Amino acid sequence: MKNSCLFLTLLIVLSAPLHTNAFGHINSPQPPEDSLVFHDGHSFPVIGKLHDEKNYHRFPYADSGSLRKPVWNLSLHSAGISIRFRTNATQIAVRWTPLNDAGMPHMAATGVKGVDLYAYEKDHWQYAGTGLPREKTTQALLLKNGDGVEREYLLNLPLYDGIESLFIGVNAGAVISAPKDPKLLSNKPVVYYGSSIAQGGCASRPGLAFTNILSRKLDRSFINLGFSGNGTFDSSVGDGMARVNAALYVIDCNPNTKAELVYEGAVNLVRLLKAKQPGIPILLVEGSHYDSDFFTAAKNQLNDKKRAELRRAFETLKRSGVKGLYYKKGDNLTGKDHEGTVDGDHPNDLGMMRMADALAPAIRSAIRKGE
Question: Domain 33-177 has what CATH class?
Answer without folding.
Answer: mainly beta
